[in-house]
Amino acid sequence: MKKILYTIAILVWMSGCSEILDIEDINNYNPEDVWNDENLANAYMANLYGMFGNWSSGADRTSQQIAGIVWYEDRITISNGNYKNWNYNRIRLINQAIVDVQSGTLSDEVKDNILGQAYFMRAYTYFDMVMYHGGVPYIKEPQDRYEDDLYVSRNSTAECFDFLEEDLDMAISLLPEHISTTSGDYGKIDGNFAKAFKGKVLLYKASPQFNPSQPWDNAYWDEAYEANKLAYESLLSQGYGLVEDYSNIALEERNREVVFSVINSYPNKTASWDHGVRPGSESRGPASATPTWEFVKDFPMKDGKLYNDPTGAYYMTEQEFLQNYWMNRDPRFDKSIVWNGKVYEVSNKSGKRQYTSLGIAHELDDFGINPAAQTNSTNLDRYTGFFIMKNSLLNLTQAEVQQYDLDFVLMRFAEVMLNYAETANETGDLTTAMDILKQIRERAGIEPGNNGNYGITASTREQMREAILAERNIEFCFEGHRFWDLRRLRMLDRLNGAAKHGVEAIAINENGTEMPLSEARDLADDYELVPENFKYSVLQVPRSGVQTSVLPENYYFFPIQKAVLDRNPNLEQNEGWGGTFDPSL
Q1: For the whole model, what pTM was predicted?
Q2: DSSP string spanning 127-153?
Q3: What φ, ψ does residue 399 adopt, rounded to 5°?
Q4: How far is residue 336's CA from residue 475's CA, in Å, rounded to a whole number?
Q5: What share of the chain is helix, strand, coil (3-state, %, to 5)?
Q6: pLDDT tens, 553-564?
Q7: For the chain, domain boundaries
């Protein structure tokens, strides 16, 4: 067969540097060129690590956390490519590694490490496909397009989960249990990540998404509980835990909370987080992701209760809250959200306050329809009056926002904890679930209250389920969890038909009358206007086009793309999409 030169990089984990090697086409190569040379073998594997992604400021746009209507009618069809996950090119490369490395001349230690990574990568890739579509063909051998039978049928979803467990158990047995933060291999998969990820896989297996007829009392919850308990206790015994300050979950790289991260290092590998979350006046274009009023309301107060809970120490009516929403909040609010008038010392600007008020704020930052401004905001369809603070490198200057190179934290110990809490609750261990929630809230800085429960009042499995889900919403905000949590719990009805809103700020005098904008601008120039100097009103966003989300029942499993079905007559389409395949367990 024709051979083509293919260039890939050996990943130098600590420095982020790269050395370029030429090997034959990764899809058609001589194994002796790769699997008899440790450097080339590592280069082959490094090429696959892109599967773990990187920072994405809009990861939670699919939920109510971020502005933008993602879900509109016919967003997903059998013909378009939206929400399709059919990554058999990657599977072939992984399977090739598993087969070929075993016949090479590398040392047994190197072989085992590569095999452990490959088995994990195969499980990770297949899990994504199963999460999207249900059972898929679980192919374990590299297929040759000219010689192999490519007309394979889908494995059942139950079979796929069995294979996922087998691959993860194999990975755990072969990988080093822990790769230290000072190791040159830091950033590679280790056994701890594999154990934690197995717990997540089994959490999904037990979930209502895959068990619609018996969502909460199926036997899979016991299996999920044991796996997550093992991951939690094993990692805890090795020194994993919550960092003291919630702000540092990503800003302090390689901390004790990081279970697995993708290594970034300027200039070789960067991410677009700060470029995407900063106000336009402090970035290189408008922010691509802004928090909604709905999400602002989701944060508890300092006592751990919602603002409208009559039993809370900081209870407010809806109107009172609108005019004072930044006061007495869960400390994670201050560390996650930027609001009008907040001190926001970005680009090392001491004492800087961020304004969003139309006629006062920079035109790349404003939001509102105040007629007194005598100008139209250009941000009404993308902004909300809020910006994202979480994980932002405030010391980057405006010119440096595209140099964001913090390691991307794919899994952290807080997720291991809350996965464990969820499985504990569903198997009747409310005490463990409560204890973990209290630890999360204690780290957040919420007041413990007289009973030491940090505002948590759940006393039944149903109440605790909601408490855990609410905690995940806040703890993992902007990390891309919310939509997938609601989907696996079959709670997409909470998004279906929902609208999103922002908050306009208008400067006022002490007596409540509107302040002349010229005077307000002068005060704002010296950062003298504080949040209390404004009145607030709610505006729906976007202001035009589709304004409510549409998520039909069949979105719990996405369809196989028609083009894929057309190429393989042995594949069945999912139920709910014109087919007969049952993607549930």
Answers
A1: 0.94
A2: HHHHHHHS------SPPPTTTS---PP
A3: -70, -15
A4: 10
A5: 40, 10, 50
A6: 999 999 999 999
A7: 273-407+498-541, 429-495
